[in-house]
Amino acid sequence: MQPTPDPAPTTSDSVAAEGSSEASGRFSLHRLQDFHPTQVRFFSSASDAISARRPTDVVLLILAAVALVALSLAAPGPNVLDDDAAALVQNLPGLFGWFWELSYDLLLFWGLFLLAAALFSHHRKRLLLGELLAGALAVMIAGTAGVIAGSDWSTNLRGIITTEPPVVYPATRLALATAVIVAASPHLVRPLRYVGRWIVLVGAVAAIALGVALPIGVMAAFAIGIAAAAVVHLILGSPGGRLTLDQIRTALDDLGVEVTDVARAPLEPTGVALAQATTADGRTLEVKIYGRDAWDGQLLGSVWSSLWLRGETPNLGGRVQRVEHEAFVTLLAERAGVSVLPVVAAGLGAENDALLVMELTGRPLASVDIESIDDELLAHAWGTLAALHVLGVAHGRVDGFRVVVRPDNTVALGDFGDSTTAAPDSDLNIDNAQLLVTTALLVGVERAVSAAKTALGVGGLGELPPYLQPAVLGRASRHEVRSREWDLEDLREAASAASGIEPPKLEKIRRVTWSSIAVFALIGLLSYFLISAIAQIGFQTIITTFREADAVWLVAALCMSPTIQVGQAVSTMGASIRPVRFGPVLMLQYAIQFIALALPSTAARIALEIRFFQGYGVTPSGAVSISVLDSVCGFVVQVIVIIVTLLSGLVTLNLAEPTSDSSGSSSDSSAGELLLIVGVLILCLALIAVAIPRYRRIIRERVSSSRAEVSVALRVLRSPAKVLMIFLGQVSAQVLQAAVLGLCLKAFGYEASLASLILVNTLVSLFAGLMPVPGGVGVAEAAYTAGLIALGIPQAAALSTALAFRAVTFYLPPIWGGFAMRWLRQRSFV
Q1: Are 29 and 14 in contact (CB under 8 A)?
Q2: Which domains, ranges and CATH numbers included, belong to the chain?
Q3: Distance (Å, rounded) from C-alpha 145 to C-alpha 151?
Q4: Which of the two residues, 81 and 113, has the higher pLDDT score?
Q5: What would the pLDDT profile of 717-755 be if each residue is shown by its tens digit?
Q6: Which pLDDT does position 628 carry in this prediction?
Q7: What does the angle CA 700 – CA 705 – CA 709 come to, to the nearest 5 degrees?
Q8: In what order do the strands lie in the sheet with 363-364?
């Protein structure tokens, strides 16, 4: 295909180079048209494509399992939502019974079609096995769920082939079809995936319209089908949807790029495929392919990578936008004189695969012999990066594979997929830190620091030590550093010494010791003894109440408890002055629960957050400002919630009248007395905090740091998006805590409105978090008991609920918090 003389861009334009950029530097636009593909794709990957087990399948399995447990609590229905939803569907205008019958039957037909496609295709027996296994697993889980809900196996099995009454829980046919369709999805091209999803969606509505299942049964069927398919993917793996070499060659032809040979590239980042091609005139091309059917490029996989992995961005804008962004930044840098890999072509192929073709004018720095890396080459590398920074562009992923050495011993930059324009100084410093680590991996710490000092000067080098942390490096660089005799601490010290500054000291994290656990347990026992003695509730009464509790609700509360930290993680991300990934921040919140065994919760949060954000190059003062802002906004949100709840009149607290316990006898103790106990405990703990030097020092440091960092923290409040994240995160955490409290209360046979639970939880959280005692042990239990009694809950049930709630939200979370701390340590986040 030849470039047209008309340069006007259209929606299907592709950019092609008129020869090498070094020769002319001119580009023209041409349009892709008159495509005649020789074959239509059905499968996303070749039959011998490598299968992999993906973390997103673990996430789907967990979410589906939690959803199924939650739905089983209300199964088999109907409830108010079931009745309303069923009435709405059955009264949809313009739709008749034949349409719903056809839609419901299509579930079976499409499932059989997918089975037949795998059966009669060459070398697709693994797909066939996966579909059969997913279907069988879905039927087994659906049958078991139905039996638990009060149905029987025969009714559930009959629900696969008939639409006759009775109503089936769960919708077995829908569960079976969902399992087969989801299990086959990674193997199919995107249009077929969409067809399957629409068939499942319309079939679910048809099940409700025909009266085959209630909405609760339909949702349970979705959860079962997704869980079954996720299990199969974890057992057998699933293909990535990468193009074959022949398909890549065809896509290059669509862009007008003629090649004689195509091979896989040695490095393939997440969400994109890389290939190398050779042209007739001997040039080597690097081809970046964002496949239409690539599974890693799907929304869930892309979002997962962006939440957990540094250097990965969510593919929310689409593959075309990613290609356009990289091509634009590359051309922008080239026009400004920055040495880059020239763009040869960019656009969509006939099958809607987005391609970016670059000319490889050298070889990666990581593959160059160490003996041939002289000071001039290092100077070229720093000069090229500096020229890019003059434009205000941050590369975002500087390593030995993106820095290319040309035959004339000059350096070029490639792969601008994660670049940002109008980048802040922190991003530019991260680029410099990445290049310093990259050169140190090749020529050693001393030469690398010397070259950086020559290029950046003493002042520029002095800004880098805080950024020499594992969190700012890509995965390849982190792995390379671990294999060296030196580590990043050595590099920080060398850079600090060369720039004449003190090396940044990392915050020390107090470890959980047996003595701290012993003190923690002693405080808890004394508190429980005091509360039970004054409330005239013996331990035998508590034990009896727990024996009579509904374990299902307690398990549901335990399963829901880890979601509380999701809101807290969102709030911390909003308070951060530096972009951070959600996954590590979530692990940070879980780790805070673990270390709270050794320190008061607020002090634990500050110490751990300072160390965490130092890993992202944030100074200790900046990290303190993040923690201060997060805490202050949490306090403000709690006060607002309390005021709004009280002024709304939705909650009435009875602090004076005595209540009766579950046996009907009257108790002399009241909520007012328990509140008095809480006040006495708070006063005693405050006196202890003032008397013990360690706690006094923590409080003094907290106050002084708040004053010093308030101006820094207020910078975040200029961003509406950041403010929204902070407040939504804090509010969601309070609501989720109240919901868990409600589940615990339900386990003991009592209920309260969500507004009442939010008020009680927020009041207790407000002052328990200020106590210089790990987690407010004793204080929180007494306060929750008093608050529940004020809502009219008998004392035995109130105290038992408080103990159960604290168990699932404070005493048990350190178990997975310990694993989170280990995860953070292994990846050098703390």
Answers
A1: yes
A2: 51-239 (no CATH), 242-360 (3.30.200.20), 363-499 (1.10.510.10), 514-711+737-826 (no CATH)
A3: 9
A4: 113
A5: 777 778 888 888 888 888 899 989 988 998 888 888 888
A6: 72
A7: 160
A8: 363-364, 403-405, 411-413
- State the virtual CA torsion across 299, 302, 306, 312 in degrees, nearest 10: -140
Q: Burial of 703 by CB count in 10 Å (0-12 exposed, 13-18 middle, 19+ buried)? A: exposed
CA distance linking residue 176 with residue 221, whole number of Å: 8
Q: How far apart are CA 445 and CA 766, in angstroms?
A: 49
Q: CA–CA distance from 58 to each of 53, 226, 352 (Å)?
A: 9, 11, 30
Closest CA to 356 of 307, 400, 429, 290: 290
Q: Report d(CA 494, CA 504) in Å as an integer.
A: 12
Q: Is 453 within 8 Å of 498 (Cβ atoms)?
A: yes
Rounded-to-integer distance, Cα 184 and Cα 196, Å: 10
Tokens of 233: 């993917």
Two tokens, residue 659: 């209540």
Tell me the three state secondary structure of residue 403.
strand
Nearest in space to 662 (alpha carbons), one of 779, 778, 801, 770: 801
The first and second tokens of residue 359, run together, are 């000319």
H-run or E-run covering 224: helix 215-236
Q: How far apart are CA 245 and CA 242, in angstroms?
A: 9
Segment 278-328, tens digit of pLDDT: 988 888 898 988 877 776 655 555 555 555 554 444 444 467 888 888 899
**Tokens encoding 455:** 């290029």
Pairing label, strands 51-52, 238-239? antiparallel
Rounded to 5 degrees, φ, ψ at 262 are: -135, 135
Tokens matching residue 388? 């890019």
As a whole number of angstroms, the distance between CA 518 and CA 515 comes to: 5
For residue 690, what pLDDT is reported?
58
Can you point out the beta strands (E) in 349-384?
Answer: 354-360, 363-364
Q: How far apart are CA 708 and CA 116, in angstroms?
A: 69
The whole-angstrom separation of Cα 301 and Cα 271 is 8
Residues 6+ apart with CB under 8 A from 297: 241, 271, 272, 290, 291, 315, 319
Token pair 């986040």 in the structure block, residue: 829
SS3 278: strand
CA gap 652, 657 in Å, rounded:
13
What are the pLDDT digits (tens) for 479-534?
Answer: 888 888 888 888 988 999 998 887 766 555 555 555 555 555 555 555 555 555 54
Residues 6+ apart with CB under 8 A from 414: 286, 340, 341, 358, 402, 403, 404
Contact predicate 327/358, CB 8 Å: no
For residues 461-473, one letter each, b for 16 or more C-beta atoms within 10 angstroms of the residue's C-beta and e for the rest, the string is bbbbbbbbbbbbb
Which among 179, 276, 216, 269 has a CA at the least distance from the CA of 75?
216
Q: Rounded to an integer, what distance in angstroms lies between the CA atom of residue 604 and that of residue 601?
A: 5
Give the separation between CA 745 and CA 740, rounded to whole angstroms: 9
3-state secondary structure of 29: strand
- pLDDT greater than 50 at residue 547: yes
Find the helix or strand (DSSP H, E) in which 239 lies.
strand 238-239
